Amino acid sequence: MSTENSKFKDFNFAEGELLLINKPYKWTSFDVVGKIRNSLKPLKLKVGHAGTLDPLATGLLIICTGKLTKQIDTFQAEEKEYTGTLILGATTPSFDMETEVDKTFDISKITKDEIYAATKPFIGDIEQYPPAHSAVKVNGERLYVKARLGEEVELRKRFVNVPEFEITRIELPEIDFKIVCSKGTYIRSLISDFGKNLNNGAYLSKLTRTRSGNFLLENSFEVLELVNYIRNKKEEAKAQEEA
Description:
The protein is an alpha+beta fold. Helices cover about 25% and strands about 30% of the residues. Strands 1, 2, 3, 4, 11, 12, 13, 14 and 15 form a nine-stranded mixed sheet that branches. It has a two-stranded antiparallel sheet with strand order 5-6. A hairpin with a 2-residue loop joins strand 8 (about 135-140) and strand 9 (about 140). It is elongated, with a radius of gyration of 20 Å. About 30% of the residues are buried.
């Protein structure tokens, strides 16, 4: 992305800013929040995100500062859009690439028509269980902590809405997709269930959030691009004060 100053406006972080960030691969959502919060020091501002992205996912993360953090729940509740890639013919305990493949399946007889048809049960109002390796809390402890300790937990199903589940490329074992869904939808669980619907296995290998509500990934900042801009503006302001 361009680093020209024309891309940036005069931010008022204390009053409240909504920042669209392209979350990097393997960063946690909290990593992004922390990086931006640290760049704003010595200002002591509330900074939060509206909707977690898994570390292995990339794409649109909405960050709110100052008084706008009071609206985080509103932004978080909006419809989301994702694009990604799944691997057919195998499963992992985490439903993605965080853990190693634990089972493999024969995909030689699966047809493209069967793959397209397998999305249909997952369009509309559906129920799903969160992955055992997820940030959902059970008795105050996040599931992924229990999963990594090898503890068994009782997963509670949730109801979500998926207006769109489209297959966009089939090059087995890879399948590309686009999904539009409600708040709280676990794409990893959706992909795992998709594999089961084919009497097979599937796990998520790539995921990007491209939209949240009316906010688009194409209008987002790179994290370090924004952080460097903020720091440069602080240095300019300090130099003017000392002049």
